[in-house]
Amino acid sequence: MSAPQNSRVAVDIIRGIATDIEENVGYLTQLDQAIGDGDHGINLANGFRAVRERLDELEGKDIGGILKHVGTTLVSNVGGTAGPLYGMAFMKAGESVAGKTELDANDLAKMFEAAEQGIVGIGKAQLGEKTMLDAIHPAVIATKDAANHGKSLIEALEIGVKAAEEGMRNTINMVSKRGRASYLGERSRGHQDVGATSACIMLESALKTLKRLQQT
To answer: Which DSSP state fits 81?
Structure first.
């Protein structure tokens, strides 16, 4: 059975992400308290709680519209830097698949690339600076390569998730160049970046939902 790829599935994915962010608030807070402000998980959970409360408004929207709606909700409800960064990521991803009600691996790659461009446009971060970009960029490259090799959407996402997880782990040995953590210099080494971690949680959640729906 091929993976379901319609608009209703997109809403299920968003609902799953909201749940998984909520369940990982403590973990994200612990990571952020080590070298950051400590509020990344709480802020994200608040934002996705607002998203979940408005899921009924997504009925009948195409996938691009769903993602843009999520993005604008996050921008309005998430404090700190996470709101604008993730909000723009979702909005740009939505723009890249505007009008679509079904997606393939090529669409997935376009979404990831657009999301990355949105994040870079706001945050101005570069690879190796210990940010969410260090997880997202490997996922972009991996999903694009998977799509070029004819992989299915779910296969491409699985490959992208693995790449993101490796990128996330690589942030442990990086020195932070952004945000409050950058003030610590070498002392930020040895800690996993919270933004890269929350990005992985979202991607892992999306894959988990797709796999579950594939089996039903």
So the answer is: T
Indicate which CATH number applies to the domain containing 78.
1.25.40.340
Has residue 2 been placed in a domain? no
Q: Long-range contacts for 120-126 (Cβ within 8 Å, ≥24 apart)?
A: 121/88, 122/84, 122/85, 122/88, 123/81, 123/85, 123/178, 125/177, 125/178, 126/177
CA separation, residue 48 to residues 33, 41, 141, 194 (Å) = 21, 11, 27, 17
The domain tally of the chain equals 1
| Contact assessment for residue 16 and residue 52, using Cβ atoms and an 8 Å cutoff | no
CB 99 within 8 A of CB 7: no
Could you tell me the mean pLDDT of each successive run of 10 residues in the chain, 216 residues long? 68 96 96 89 95 88 95 90 93 97 96 97 89 97 98 97 98 84 74 96 98 87
Query: Against a cut of 0.85, is the pTM above it?
Result: yes
Instruction: Report the amino acid identity of residue 99.
Output: G
Dihedral-angle region of residue 92 (phi above 0 means left; psi in -120 to 50 means alpha; beta otherwise): alpha
User: CA 131, CA 54: separation in Å to the nearest integer?
Assistant: 29
State pLDDT tens for residues 161-200: 999 999 999 999 999 876 666 656 777 799 999 999 999 9
Is residue 141 in some structural domain? Answer: yes
